[in-house]
Structure formats: C-alpha cells, structure tokens
Amino acid sequence: MKIGIFTDTYTPEINGVATSCNTLFNTLIKNGHEVYVFTTGKKTEIDETKHIIKISGKTIKRLYNYRLALPFNHKVLKEISKLNLDIIHVNTEYGVGILGFLTSKKYRIPLVYTFHTMYEYYTYYITKGFLDGLFKKLVRRLIIKYVNRASEVIAPSENTKNYLQSIKCKKYINVVPTGIDLTKFLDYKIDDEKLRNLRKTLQIPEDFKIFVSLGRIAKEKNLKETIHYFDNFIKKHNIKAKLLIVGDGPYLSELKKEVKKDDENDNVLFLGRVEHQDVGLYYHLGDLFINSSLSETQGLTYLEAIASNNIVLARNAPYLKNIIIDGESGFLYDNEEDFDNKLLMFLSLDKNKLDKIKENALKNINFYNIDNFYKKIMIVYNRAIKDLY
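Above: the chain sequence. Below: its structure as tokens.
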C-alpha cells in the first residue's frame, strides 16, 4: 500500500504523538509498504529520499511551542497529487490534519483518523480560564465532526474510546494501542559505575531511596500532586528519599516556584531535559517510577519504565488496566491516603516480591508489541478501503 501519515508533530520532537507516528512509519516500512509523512517545519521542504514532506508552520509559544501549518499549500498539494495514495492516516485535528481531510475528499482516498489527544485537558493554554467551558464545547464539536468524516476511527485505548462515545460520537471506534518498540529499554546495558557516578553528582546518599518522575512537564501531568504527596509522605514517616523530576516543558518554572516556597523541601530535584539515549539510565537509577497524570491516552513512559525493570506507582486511570494490576504488576492510588499506603507497601516488600511484580509487569507490556500493532492497523486500513469502495 501507499500510505500518507499526516501529523503536526514528528521526531525529533519528543511527545507521545510524534513517537506514535514514527513507530507507525517504521512498522509500515518494515512490512513493505510505501509510506510518506506530512508534518510541520520551519519552511516547506520535500525530502523524497526520506519520504518526509514538511509544511511551513508558525510556532505557538503559549501552546508549548506547538507548530501550526496552513493546510492550503500549493507545493505540497501538487506533491500529493503525484503520489496516488491508497490510505490517508490523519493523527491531528488542525493544520496538517485539515490538509489530510481535504486531500481525502478531493482525490477520494480512504481516511483513517486516530484520536490521540484529550484536548479538554489542554484548553487552558489558550483560554487561561476565560470562557474555558465554552471552548471545551467547541473542541468537542470539532472532534465529532472529524470522527464523522473519517472512513475509520482509531482510539489508542479504551479510555479514549469511552471519551469519544461520551461526547456522542456515533462511528465505530477501533481500539488499537500504539505498538511500542521497547528493545532499547529491555536490552539496556546497565553500567553500575555510571549509576554510582550519577548518584554522586546528584549528591544522593547511598541509603536514600530514589523515586523518579520522567516526561514532559505540563500542568495536565499533575506533577504538583506528585510533589505534594511525596513531600508529606517523607516528613510524616521520616523516610530517606529523593524525588527526581526529569524532563522539560511549559509548567517547569511554575512547578519550581511551588517547591521553592517550601524552604525545607530539598528532597525534590529538577534535572531538566536529558538526552534521549540517557533516559534508560534515569529509569534504572530510580527504585520506583511515579506518575500522577490523568491526561494520558496510553502512557508510553509507564511502558518504558517497566521495560527498564522499574516498578510503577501511578494515579488510577482506565488506560492503565492492561498494564498495572494493583499490587501484582505495580501500584495504583486514588488519593493521598492511598498514595501513602502504597508507598509503605512498596518499601516493606523484600527483593523476591519486588522481582515478582517486575516479572508480572513485563508480561503485561507484551500486549503492546509491534506485531500485534501492525496486524490491527492493517485490519483497519483494509476496512477503510472497503468502506469507501
């Protein structure tokens, strides 16, 4: 098949949608398909060797430097007309996504639409609280419009499927979790000397536990709760521990200010952005991976942490049901009291029990293997072609 992937964000940008689209591209190429990526860039350029078509886009700083492209680009439209695509796969609702829908209609090409992002968690970046309820309603109407115009619709989790159904999307929704190549985390060569040196650099004593939260620093990730609960926990129980916040994002400076207000809080360390090849090092440095987010559609960092032989403590959410069974393959919490109890439970377990939890979690992440992903994607693509013809 000839397939066009339309997305506003793509690697080397670091976010869930960019990673998902890159995985889709590589998986389809590996299985013999001819694939083209349409995405944003500083200027319009066509790289025929890499099959990447970039469309000039404007950076929106208040929306964590999201780049928005105008869909009417004659140079790109001319390129599309030459490709004779069999499938258009849209992964965004704006800019490049609109181009995908227009192209599908003009050339009568089956269109698959993946709903990646729970936009209602992000509207405050635009509204700053002013008429936010109205803006959320407009977002819902737009999503319904996209769903109804697509040949087939994909949700990456039951959680996102339930959301689409809750806002009255009537179309059949295929649940296809993004396949994740976790090889680099599963096969990560642990360098004990590097780990010791990193601990020394961070000035963390040997008898301290290390909890890690890693990912994009944004308000919807609920890191304020993570820090608050962690700080209360170590003070209440007199636990020797440090919380490492690894990553960068639009909420970082505000989060630092919150921690700075508490002069006694020196147990939270902000490490900022780390190089992608070093991410595995930080997962292995930690004794426990903590994430309080409620905005995920799939939760890639949870899977990376598990593949890195780490144990996860996470806010209870529907998208985790295939990954974490509380107490068996990780820990889930609903409130601060629950957070405390699960941390105390984790700290009380011996090595054998901790190893069993890790083993169970590794079995669960097999659900997201690349082969399963490819088979499900092809079922959707073939159905989209039948829908149109």
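The chain has a mean pLDDT of 88.
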